[in-house]
Amino acid sequence: MFILIAGGTGSIGKYLSGHFLQAGHTVAVLSRNTEKHKLAKGVRIIAWDAKDTGPWVEAIEGCDVVINLTGKSVNCRYTRKNKYAILHSRTESTKALGKGLQQLKNPPKVWFNMSSATIYQHSEEYPNDELTGIIGDDFSMNVCKAWEKSFYAVTLPETRKIVLRLAITLGMDGGVIPRYRNLVRFGLGGKMGSGNQMMSWVHALDVAMAIDFLIARDELHGIFNIAAPHAVTNAAFMEALRKDMHMPFGLPTPKWMLEIGAFLIGTETELILKSRWVIPQKLLAAGYHFSYNRIEKAVHT
């Protein structure tokens, strides 16, 4: 197949590119910067501005699968300027991609658009699935809602459309694991805040394999939580990391200290303290089996 990954120059996009190349597919990436990214050999980079149609539309003619990952990183302070960029980098790119796909003579068979498990409300008592999960009303949740709305506003009768509500992704270069490992390495790998906040996670291999599974199942569409079935508390996650790194202790980090640290490094404590607890009910019901279903195995890779 010809697989197109929009915004595919980040950690997840690079992992997916390598996965699909190894499977024998043709892979192209839409990027606003065509020079600075080191992608797997064989990946073609196509320039676009993520805001409107252009010459890139002709270059993607014949694509079978589209995966849209485009969006400014949320690992920043939520200033007015950053909030605007986080929201509009997602909604504008989705609208532009939709317009481009509508112009193709042969539209893709399936279009995956990324979203996030953070769309669900903070929960330490019960998990959220795709059918009964409670969607909240703060900045991050509203970004996800607007992102999904812009996706579903695009009409493509011949294309199956799937939203991927992605949990924290492990098992790849970059991402969150190197930062957590550094904390453990310096003896700061204890619980963060109360440690009771739930952490839904997924291994990158299961992200790729779940996409393979959904591509092959023509009857599947709509919203899918992409998260391993067994979420863990923050305290349990940090313990698993310490054991994997043979670190016998880890000092806890109280909330006030996290607030100071987040300010100093230019990020938000929400990324650590929000309790994201989701289950992949629709994937499990469809028969998908996770290769990494326990955190101990996932942090080891």
Structure, explained:
There is one protein chain. With 301 residues, the protein is α/β, with parallel strands linked by helices. The protein is built from eleven helices and eleven strands. A seven-stranded parallel β-sheet has the order 3-2-1-4-5-6-10, with helices on both faces. Strands 7-9 form a two-stranded parallel ribbon. Strands 8-11 form a two-stranded antiparallel ribbon. The longest helix is centred in the first third of the chain and has 23 residues, at 80-102. The chain starts with a strand and ends with a helix. The model has no long low-confidence stretch (mean pLDDT 93).
Strand content: 15-25%
End-to-end distance: 28 Å
Give the biggest beta sheet: 7 strands, parallel
Backbone shape: globular
Assembly level: single chain
**Overall SS class:** alpha/beta
| Rg from alpha-carbon coordinates | 19 Å
Question: DSSP helix count?
Answer: 11
Residue runs with pLDDT of under 50 for 5 or more positions: none
Q: Give helix and strand order, one letter per element, not per position.
A: EHEEHEHEHEEHEEHEEHHHHH
Mean pLDDT across every amino acid position = 93
- Order the strands across the largest sheet as they lie in space: 3-2-1-4-5-6-10
How helical, in percent, are the residues?
Answer: 25-40%
Total strand segments: 11
